[in-house]
Every structure is written in C-alpha cells, then in structure tokens.
Amino acid sequence: MSSMPKTQNGVASEPEAPPLVERRGMPAAPPKRIAHIVSVSGSQAIAVLERDPATSKDETRVEIGQLVKIPTPLSTVIGLVSAVSAPLPTSGGSAEDIRLIELNLAGEVVDDPNDGRLSFRRGVSHLPTIGDAVLLADRYDLTRVYTQPNVATIEVGTLFQDSAVPARFIIDDLLSKHFIVVGTTGCGKSCALTAILQRVLEDHNHAHIVMLDVHNEYPTAFGERAELINPSNLHLPFWLLNFQELSAALTSGDAYHDAEVEILSDAVIAAKRRYSDASSNRQISRRPGDNGGMTVDAPTPFRLSDVLSYIDEQLGKLDRAQKTLPFRRLKNRIETLASDQRYSFMFGSLQVQDTMADILGRLFRVPNDGRPITVIDLSTVPPEILDVVISVISRLAFDLAVWSKGGLPMLLVCEEAHRYAPATGGEGFAPTRHALSRIAKEGRKYGLSLALVTQRPSELDTTILSQCSTVVAMRLSTERDQQVMRANTHDGALDLLDFLPLLGDREAIVLGQGVGMPMRIKFADIGEKGVPRNHNGGFSHSWSRPNLDRAGLEAIVSRWRQAGRERGGA
After folding, report:
1. Using one digit for the tens of pLDDT, what is the confidence trace for 272-287?
2. Is the peptide bond before 367 cis (omega within 30 degrees of 0)?
3. What is the C-alpha to C-alpha distance for residues 510 and 474, in angstroms, rounded to an integer?
4. How far is residue 168's CA from residue 187's CA, in Å, rounded to a whole number?
5. How far is CA 65 from CA 159, 243, 258, in A?
6. Could you give the residue ranges of the DSSP H alpha helices within 204-256?
7. 3-state secondary structure 129-168
8. Are 467 and 178 in contact (CB under 8 A)?
9. Contact by Cβ (8 Å): 227, 210
10. Please, which residues bridge with residue 308 across strands?
11. How far apart are CA 78 and CA 137, in angstroms?
12. How confident is the model at residue 24, as a pLDDT?
C-alpha cells in the first residue's frame, strides 16, 4: 500500500501522500466528520456526536481508544477517545439523545520547518475551540502518527484500531530509558518480551543483552543468537562478590550475625593480602591494622583456604567456648558451602585465578561472537543464594558500564522483578534492591538500561517503576495493580489503563516515550520455535495418560539427593 512507510535498517521514511484514488482502487472518500467540539479544558475536550440527517443515526461507530483529528487554522490536533456517554438519554434512545465523546489531546500534525512536510509531534500548541470538527483518523493518519519517520523503530505487531497498520516502537527511547512489561499470569508477557527482543536482534547484530531467566522459559526463544548459561557452566567466583553479598551468603541471620560479619571482614582482608603477596612473590611485614590498601569490596581474588586459616589462627588465641562460637559457626558454614556441589559455580573452584575479564566477557558478550544475548537460567540456583547471584550480576553490569564510560551499551532483562526489588523496604535482599535501583536511577547515563517483567507491579519498588519511561501494560485484573500503574505512569492517555482487565491475550496498552503516541496493540505471533517454554502442559492433557512411573520417581529422588552431596563424594 502506498500509505505504508518504507523502512531501511529499522528506520521508517516519511509516508507518501495519499493519491486521489483510494488504496484499494476505490474513489477517495472525504474525511469522516463524526462530531464537533463543545468543551475544551486543558488537555481534555468534549464533543457531541453528529447524526446522518437522512437516517437520524450516528454515521460512524466510535470506540474508546480510537484516534481522531481536529483541524485548526494552524495545525491538526490529534486526540484519543477516552469515554463515550449519553448524559440525558430519553426513553428508548430516541434521535433527541445527546451523545458525547471525551477526548485526550495528545499531539498535533504540523509543517516540519526543515523540509516543509507534515509531521506529528507530542504536545498541543494550538488548542481546538467550540464548533471545530472532529474527524475519525483514517489509515493514512494512523500511519503518520504511529510511525515516526526517519527514526529507528522495530515492528512488534499491529494497531487495535486498524490491523493493517503496524505497531512500532522507537528503539532508542525504548531501550535507553528503561521499559517494563506488566500483566497477569497467562496473558502473554513472556511472548511480548520475546517479540520485542527478537525484533531488536534482527537489526542489531552487535547488541549486548543479558536476561535473568528465573523460570528457564527462554532457552530456545532466540536460537543461535543466544549464549545459554546455567549453574552447570556458570562461573561466578565468590571473590567477585562485594562484602555485603558475601556476608549474606556466608553468615547466619541470628544473634551471632554481627560477630560473624566482623570476623569475616578481617578474614577476607587477610586472605586478599596473602593472595596478593603470594602472586607478587613477596612477603611484607605490616604493622597491626595495615591492610596494604586492600578493601573488603575490591573485586580482587582470594582463597577460601586463607579465610579458613585466618579463622583457625584466631581460634587458637581464644580459650572460652562462648567467644569461639561465632568463629566455629562461620567456619562450618564456609566448609559446607564449599563442599556442596549446588554451589560449585561460586565456591567450587580449587584454583583461584584472576579471570575477571573472561567472566565479564562471557556474561556481557564482549565480543558477542554472533550471540548478542546471554540467557542465564537461574531456575536451579539454590534459593539461599539466588538473590546474591542476581545482585552480583546486576552490580557487575553497572560497574562495567561506569568503567567503560558508556562505551558498552547494555540491556539487563529481569523477570519477576517484584521478587528482587519489592515495594516494602524491609523485604527482599537489600543489595539486589540497591543494584537494580541504582541502574534505574543512574544507568542511562552510562548506556545501561533495564527491561523489567512483572505480574505484580503493586509489589515492585515504586522508585524503580517510576523510572521506566515506556510501559507495556497487558491484562491486569486487580484494582491495586491498576492504581499503581496509573500513579507511576506519566502520559496524556492514562484513561486507556482503565481497560486493562478487558485486554485479550497478546494485547497491550503501550504508553511512554518508546512510542509516538499511546496505543492499543496486538503483538505479533512469534511462532512455535520462538515461544518461551511453558512447563505446565495443563491438567486435562497430563491426566489423560500415564505421566510418571516408579522408575521415573526413583530417578527424580536420585537427582534430588545428588544435588546436595559433597563434591568428590558422589
């Protein structure tokens, strides 16, 4: 169709003016006048629907969410229908009924000062007035408004108002300013996220995307473009943890916690000093309290054996059992983690080497070697340290972005975001919450962006939520979640969020800077190969045939027990 924009490398060109002959070969029809303005207040307007004099019926069916245009002497104002009503209906709905539509004024079409072509822009500088005609936007208008010319975009689906018009996201605004996908279970969040990332990767072979996959949903979603990492091939050594993360993994949470933290701090500094001295083949005598410039948070290698040796040395100096108890508890905890194969990706290395560059290169795809996305399967990470792992990866992403001075743009994708950055301050793991919050508030300065996915936006930290400049809102049933989205979304069409409970699968209301205008869309079908894994096949299917025998149960029990055994003893 001549009205559809042409694209090159994801950049949409200016739509061609519609010819005198309609695109389907029919004579061009004049724009449909559906109403006239009777009230304007700020960004809101009210119009009275007009009727066909011959039939005394409304000429056109008007629905909430449709795009309309209002010609003025200096521009064409673009609005969205936010409500329809008949304030004083007569009995039976006669021709005397006054039928109103409420409009959100969102932007205008004006002459571009650079080339004189018509273009759409947010904001309204020339408001309509009483009596101005309201016209229903046609396919050409929709294309002009929703397809930003000469801007890099990705096509993710189609518009609800006209399925022939593609729904496009502005890629730089979407990725550089954080975005969030919200929706209840089963509405298609994972498929929507996959559709977005697949389209991004189609035109950007040199991307750097890290996905924290807590349910093992995405191992096949990106095919050969993805580097797949799970605990069996993940290498995230303990010495990369900062002290808050390390103490969370190694100390208890009871009355002896503070004592254990103090002991661990001294032990880590001593271990780092010993490793540094051994690596440089030197032994330096230091005065008490001299740490040789070492800090507990510096990402420098050290050995757990040196930590244990320090604890043993201190135990040898103590004689009372009460004083030795925190030392013995800490030692036992370290030895248990070091011997449990479930934690081998963090504590299992027998040799400690400075492999920080190798670790960062693999996690963040530097170079990406044709695999621009890392999918990290965290589904089998022990719950005791899952928060620690997410904290470490998030913090490393931020630190790498800072030290690269923005030279390595990255996207961090976090599923189930409300679990790791909860709205309630006392819940969740503080370092993880801090790491994600820091990325949300400061990451864009260094080229690091967040993509969050959650089914419970009301349980997500509001500071992080408010920093997401683009919202992809799918079906939400609870009033609390809807209220939170209204309160933390800044756009001129928040009324569209009232329809979140009514959205079908793969449908979404998209608001924010990642789109030219707020819009209701349906995401494209990504096909069977790209669909995220669904581990629940449904009871009706599973219970219609035998699903597990005794041998299968024993195999499960064996894997269960094997996971907790000591390395070398299995």
Report:
1. 988 888 776 655 444 5
2. yes
3. 9
4. 20
5. 11, 51, 57
6. 243-250
7. CCCCEEEECCHHHHHHHHCCCCEEEEEEEEECCCCCCEEE
8. yes
9. no
10. none
11. 9
12. 36
Element (H, E) at 11: strand 11-12
Please name every residue paired with 167 in a beta bridge, in sequence order, or none if there are none: 157
pTM of the model as a whole: 0.81
User: Scanning the structure block, which residue is given the tokens 């045939």?
Assistant: 545
Amino acid letter, 39? S
Residue-averaged pLDDT of the chain: 82
Domain 169-232+368-535, CATH number (from 3.40.50.1390, 3.40.50.300, 2.40.70.10, 1.20.140.10): 3.40.50.300
d(CA 563, CA 556): 11
Q: Which residues make Cβ contacts (< 8 Å) with residue 74, sequence separation at least 6?
A: 110, 125, 126
Burial of 335 (0-12, 13-18, 19+ CB in 10 A): middle
Instruction: Please tell me the number of Cα atoms within 13 Å of 259 on its side-chain side.
Output: 14
In this chain, the answer to whether the domains covering 32-137 and 169-232+368-535 adopt an identical fold is: no
DSSP secondary structure string for all residues of 439-465: HHHHGGGGTEEEEEEES-GGGB-HHHH
Residue 384's identity, in one-letter code, is E
| pLDDT tens digits for range 480-512 | 888 888 887 766 666 777 778 888 888 999 988
Residue-level pLDDT at 433:
87
What architecture is domain 32-137?
Answer: Beta Barrel (2.40)
CA distance 149 to 27: 27
Q: Which residue, among 307, 306, 273, has the nearest Cα to 288 in the 3D structure?
A: 273
Domain segments of the chain as ranges: 32-137, 169-232+368-535, 239-347
Angle formed by the axes of helices 430-442 and 383-403, nearest 10°: 30
User: Average pLDDT of 98-115?
Assistant: 82
Tens digits of per-residue pLDDT, 143-199? 888 877 778 899 999 998 888 889 999 999 999 899 999 998 888 898 999 999 999
